[in-house]
Amino acid sequence: MEVVDKTKIKGGPIGVLLILSTIALLLGSVFVWSYVSRSVDDQRKIEFQRVVGMTEERVQDTLHMLVERLYDLRGFVSTGGINSERWINYLTSIEVEDRYPGMYTFAYAPVVERNKLESFISKIKNEEKSKEYQEYSVFPETQTPEVVPVRYLYTSDPDIGSLLGYDITTSENQVIALKKAVADDVPAITNLLHIGLVLPGNTKTGYVIMLPVYSKIDIVNYPKEERRQYFMGLVGTWVFPQGLLSHVDIEEELMAKEVSLTVFDGEDKPISLGNNGGDLRAVREINLLDKKFRFEFIGKRQKILDQFTESLPWLTLGGLIIINLMWTATVTSILLSRREAEKLAVEATKDLRKFKQAVEGVSDMVTITDENGVITYVNGMAEKITGYKKEMMLGKTPRLWGRQMDEEFYKNFWKRIKEDKKPFWGEVINKRRNGELYEAEVNISPILDDSGKLLFFVSIERDLTKAKAIEKIKTEFISLASHQLRTPLSAMKWFGKMLISGDAGDLNPMQKEYVEKIYESNEREIRLVNSLLNVSKIESGKILVEPRLTDLTRLISSVMTDFRLEAGELGKKLTAVIDKKIPKIYIDEDQIRQVYANLISNAVRYTKKGGVISVKVYLSKNFIMTEIKDNGIGIPKREQKRVFDKFFRASNALKIETDGTGLGLFLSKTIVESSGGKMGFRSSEGKGSTFWFTLPVKTKN
Ligand code: ADP
């Protein structure tokens, strides 16, 4: 059992690692968060640009298609022979309404000489039956040699519809575009037009794109300078910025993302306003013929991406904070429990050291072995007792110094501690390294775990050599002293007897009384010395049982005679009932006589005046039972277990009878047991006692 002396488990590398990992996690979290935020930012920009790009593309497409429609329309008009019905049919057939939902306006305005204006109008009224044509007039009225009135109109806008008959030459803005268109045979666009100028109160603004119409269908095959002579009018379309976006999906997309669009004309005047405010901005320049429009897109950062993507950085941040908190909590608890463990370890080590010091220091030999008896620990005393060094004992079994008892002993011993798992206690003989045999008292305990499994054995061995030696000296001393005392006591006894019997002359009554007292005291002294001698004989093993065939009935009767007189004098009754069938048996007569004498004298002594003492002897199976019953003072319950101890005297007995040695019962029991019998008693304080003993029926030696 090596006590590991590591009272301080260093916080060292694991603590540092934990702290470093926490820092790394924090830095990692910051990185992840900024990465996610940045990529969401990028995605947002890309998405915004996509919306802007798509819008731009759709606007370009729309413009392009509008111009194409104008070319188609001029081809149609050039064929001649059209009326309002065919005009409408044509435009319907090219699906104008579907392609430009809510934004279409197409018109044809022929060039009419002023002097033919009347016939032009009356011709219309003849040809066209509808109400609007019956009210057809050219307006506003001017005196220019040529007018260019709107003859056909196909529009989704009722305001524009009321411009049927409008003479476009009355608008300088339109005349400039007209001239440019006719001069180069190109689609030309006007500057910003305010409808309010023609229709008071109307706030609409927009542009007209116009394209000259010639009486030749294949006009493109003619050189440009020749085309003028075939010029017959203009086809035109009305353009306003919102209209350019009226492709349903585009508007919806813009609205969904809350992207507002402001369109500025060539002079940077806003012509359509829809600014909702926002922090994303993109500008696109879109050419509409020779006119430059600026489209300004403003978007709101949070509206571009879907809710989930937008909240991704915050979700990430929340997640990272939770992970960080959890990690911090884990690290803290690890560090705390490490500290706790360190504390416990320090305490445990201290305890263990104290324990080890204590075990090392005890005056008994302590051995710990595994379940097979292999030694795992021995204390310092083991070296002193056995003479072997610790290193020699560890890994070996206690046979090293044992093996002096017979085989049977060790078999029983192992069965008890290993199989029955019970502690063993006993005296054994062992052998020191120097070959000397020694007696030892051994106490071996099997140590079990909670489930009853055998873990190891702890053995405590006490070397009895010294104790036995002291005991021997003591016994020898008592024996010697008793012998020395007995001689003068015997002398005193005989001289006393002679004085009393008058061998040395008559004594006067007072002298006689004094000598008798001396004689009695001397008798007591002799009894004590005899008892002491017997005890010392027993302890030195010198008590010898010398069995002789004995008539027990006679023996008892003689003892009874000895005591009856004394009992009678003290006013106590002594009776005996002895079984007639009791055979002669082999016993040490002198010693058994002493047992009867002891027990009967006790019964007489510890009974008050008027007490009754009955002796009963009977044969039972293969032993003879003797019971000596009295109705005396009894023995107090709590003192009963010490009754057969050497020098025991009960507290109640001490009060009434100071004269006693406390050796009688000890001797009696020893004698009975060495004769092969047993001794016991029952007693109740104040009521009486019954001492009993058995003797084997031994009729042959
Ligand atoms: P002793 O009689 O000399 O004291 P014993 O060994 O004979 O020594 O008896 C021991 C003690 O046991 C007595 O002192 C007494 O207290 C108690 N004892 C023995 N016999 C009786 C008895 N019959 N009744 C009561 N106490 C008894």
Question: How does this structure look, described?
Answer:
- Among the domains are: 104-239, CHASE domain (Beta-Lactamase), CATH 3.30.450; 362-462, 2-Layer Sandwich (Beta-Lactamase), CATH 3.30.450; 468-539; 548-696, Heat Shock Protein 90.
- It is built from 21 helices and 24 strands.
- Helix content is 48%, strand content 21%.
- The chain has 701 residues and is α+β, with helices and mostly antiparallel strands.
- The strands form six sheets. Strands 1, 4, 5, 6, 7 and 8 form a six-stranded antiparallel β-sheet that branches. A five-stranded antiparallel β-sheet has the order 14-13-17-16-15. A five-stranded mixed β-sheet has the order 19-21-22-24-23.
- Residues 1-10 have low confidence and may be disordered.
- The two termini are 57 Å apart.
- The structure holds adenosine-5'-diphosphate.
- Residues 598, 602-603, 606, 630, 632-635, 643, 648-650, 653, 660-666, 689 line the site of adenosine-5'-diphosphate (ADP).
Question: What layout of secondary structure does this protein have?
Answer:
Blueprint: H1 12-78, H2 84-93, H3 96-99, E1 105-110, E2 112-113, H4 117-127, H5 131-134, E3 146-147, E4 152-155, H6 158-161, H7 172-184, E5 188-189, E6 193-194, E7 205-214, H8 224-227, E8 231-239, H9 241-244, H10 248-256, E9 260-264, E10 270-272, E11 280-288, E12 291-299, H11 301-304, H12 307-361, E13 365-370, E14 375-378, H13 380-386, H14 390-393, H15 407-419, E15 424-431, E16 437-448, E17 454-463, H16 465-501, H17 509-539, E18 548-550, H18 552-569, E19 573-578, E20 585-587, H19 589-605, E21 612-620, E22 623-630, H20 651-656, H21 664-674, E23 679-684, E24 688-696
Parallel strand pairs: 19-21
Antiparallel strand pairs: 1-4, 1-8, 2-3, 5-7, 6-7, 7-8, 9-10, 9-12, 11-12, 13-14, 13-17, 15-16, 16-17, 18-20, 21-22, 22-24, 23-24
The structure holds adenosine-5'-diphosphate.
Residues 598, 602-603, 606, 630, 632-635, 643, 648-650, 653, 660-666, 689 line the site of adenosine-5'-diphosphate.
